[in-house]
Amino acid sequence: MADRVIEVATTPFLCQKPGTSGLRKTVSVFRQPHYVENFVQSVFDVLDGLAGQTLVVGGDGRFYNQEAIQVILRMAAANGVGRVLVGRDGLLSTPAASCVIRRHGAYGGLILSASHNPGGPAGDFGIKYNIGNGGPAPERVTEAMFARSRELTQYRILEDETPVDLSRDGDTQLGAMRVSVIDPVADYAELMETLFDMEAIAGLFRDGFTMRFDAMHAITGPYAHAILEKRLGAPAGTVVNGTPLKDFGGGHPDPNLTYAHDLAELMFGPDAPDFGAASDGDGDRNMILGRGVFVTPSDSLAVLLANAELLPGYRGRVKGVARSMPTSRAADRVAEAMGLPCYETPTGWKFFGTLLDAGRATLCGEESFGTGSDHVREKDGLWAVLAWLNILAQRGETVAGILTGHWRQFGRTYYTRHDYEGLDKAPADALMADLRGRSLVGEVFAGQRVVLHDDFAYTDPVDGSTSSGQGIRVQTEDGSRLVVRLSGTGTQGATLRLYMERFEPNPEHHHHDAQDALADLIAATRSLLALKARFGAEDPTVIT
Length: 544
Ligand code: G6P
Ligand code: ZN
Fold this sequence. Notes:
The protein has 544 residues and is of the alpha/beta class. It folds into 3 domains: 5-183, Alpha-D-Glucose-1,6-Bisphosphate, Chain A, domain 3, CATH 3.40.120.10; 188-410, Alpha-D-Glucose-1,6-Bisphosphate, subunit A, domain 3 (Alpha-D-Glucose-1,6-Bisphosphate, Chain A, domain 3, 3-Layer(aba) Sandwich), CATH 3.40.120.10; 412-543, TATA-Binding Protein (2-Layer Sandwich), CATH 3.30.310. Helix content is 32%, strand content 25%. The protein has a 7-stranded mixed β-sheet with strand order 2-6-5-3-4-9-8, sandwiched between helices. A 7-stranded antiparallel β-sheet has the order 20-21-24-25-26-19-27. Strands 11-10-12-13-14 form a 5-stranded mixed β-sheet, with helices on both faces. The N and C termini lie far apart (56 Å). Bound molecules: 6-O-phosphono-alpha-D-glucopyranose and zinc ion. Residues 94, 115-116, 280-282, 284-285 line the site of zinc ion. InterPro entries: A-D-PHexomutase_a/b/a-I, A-D-PHexomutase_a/b/a-I/II/III, A-D-PHexomutase_a/b/a-II, A-D-PHexomutase_a/b/a-III, A-D-PHexomutase_C_sf, A-D-PHexomutase_CS, Alpha-D-phosphohexomutase_SF, PGM. Its cofactor is Mg(2+).
């Protein structure tokens, strides 16, 4: 029988612990027999009342996406799920998946992605579960999945392995479950219509405004083609690398100055268009550039907040802003001027969920190229691009003009992040332990007296949950700050991240390169941390 459910005996994998963004491992790990099945069964087993419910399934199109989706569909049917909404060809960007979950009142969703990590047979893959509000499952849920995965003895799946045709929209039956193949762009594009002044943006392009959007061969291609070119009338060719490839063309789909170097080169060269932007593997990150200017994600959040009244979906309803701790304090200054609360959370978009649900924060952002709002429960790359376009259209200024005007009004926070990738774990852990074990308060650092040295801890003001050990903060009396933490998203070794910033109120000093403006802080940090002695090298692998 085509819809016969079988129970397959299995032994647990002990390493299926979801991290910052779901279960993320190399493809070779995921391809082990039963690996996907075990994890998916562990997810289903901890979801109460799943029977008869609707789930959303889709991914960023990377290698193994299609295979994993077919397994998930056969397991969902065998576990009593009523209906699955799946993006055509198995595609859904992360923010679009969040949007579809919310709009269709789904029980939750499975997103297949490893975000900005490289794809292909030698790259990474991932599975993430999002709950009914459209956001990543909170830690107590992922912990329960992990616990379940360690004791699993069998999983349920349909016996018949005939793949479901995902290439055409419409409904099919899989066992007792309905599979609805949907346009991956439509719901998301409709939501964007309600937030932004699309006519004003279309007017920009009619008037000859030029732009390049680099989809980096990843998931935002179809969304950007549909919204920027078809809907808003940007000339064909505005979107480049717009066809999702399984291996992202061999690239590293992370929108920063290092990995989106072609775009960066264009924007700082003689033929730069008015506006440049890029997104990552699964479409939740963004990078914003103007002609000859890069907007740091921290500044981008501050500018969006300061200009939110120009955006139809946000006019008169911004309740507050939230940023992750290592993100610069540029947005804090805007919030203060606007009389709005500004929340400082640990790194990870999931920490914004409670604030967004409670209506305490409306806009959120992270230094790691994430910006978004309460329209979904993920960060959203194209949303940020449309927000900037809307502001550019309303103000009739260049990106550089908006940025310098912003700094003049609120002061400039010089900011840089230096990453040291591929370090050995032991000396990296030792560095963190050393920093935790001493206090620099009262000492002089980069020519200034240290007034704060702590390890960031957070109590969620909505649900009271606590998180500690979130990163070392060293602050001096002139308001300069160093943050030191280890990445929580890498799949190999350790990555050390150093975040440095300094506030500059005087407009006469606003036009320096951030590396120059922060040179003394950078040097003081390297010697404080004894990077050379510990790791043999002093220069970072990536600067953002
Ligand atoms: C992912 C998360 C973000 C987080 C980023 C950096 O993109 O969704 O919320 O800021 O990773 O994390 P890391 O621990 O590597 O600095
Ligand atoms: Zn991402």
